[in-house]
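Notes from the 1:1 (GR / supervisor)

We went over the backlog. Supervisor wanted to see one worked example end to end before approving the batch request, so GR pasted a single chain during the call. The sequence is below; no edits were made to it. Supervisor asked that the structure be written out right there so they could see what the output format looks like.
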Amino acid sequence: MARAFSHYKIINFSIITLAFFVLLLTTEVTWKSYTDYRTVRDMGHANAMADYLIDAAAIEAMERGMTASALSSHIPASPANLQSIAELREKGDGNWSKAIALAHGLTANMATDSEFTAAIRLAEEEHSSLLQARARVDSCLKVKTCTYTAAEWLKVASHFIGVSARLREIAFMPLDTPHHVAQLNLSLKRWAWLASEHAGRERGILGYYIGARLPLPPAVLDELKGNRGVVERNISDIQAVAELKSTDQRVVQ
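Structure output shown during the call:
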């Protein structure tokens, strides 16, 4: 009888031990599934955030050029021009706000002093500076004389676009993704942004000199050629990746 009871104890202990290991295994699998899901989710959010920032930068570049042209013309802007600038601001800010909302979501599992959190804070500060610059622009475009120059406006707008680009790149650094995937993603988005930004700089400079009815100085002409070269080189890099047989078709599209 004692021996049978001992066997039951051994069997019960074995069952409990097995149940414990199953529980551990289930917990480990569940946790891995959760972390894998979170990684994919965060990668998707970072990707969407980057796309919103690229779209916003392209719109902001158009605003930058149109505003520079209006500021340099030395006459009050027409209602049509003011409306076009207002529409560009609304579209650009809409994309930028969506990007910032996603960016804040990505910080849920990060330290409050992380580099990405600091980049978000800086981007928001620079956006406030942009809003202040726009207020000065608005007061200038409605009068004949103005103390705010196109050069000052170009500097503020370009700096904001650059800070937003830095935020876009830092977003991918803390993500747990395969290195080659993350690197290709970063490279493609950077090439697209560089092409857009330097085309926007070219447009802004041309807008300024056309609005002011001034000829292009040789140094400025060289700068324009340099911007055009950056645009063509980065578009060429994007096309080269698209033509590789090893490039995933989703990336190609």
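Supervisor's comment: The chain is about 85% helix and 0% strand.
Batch request approved.
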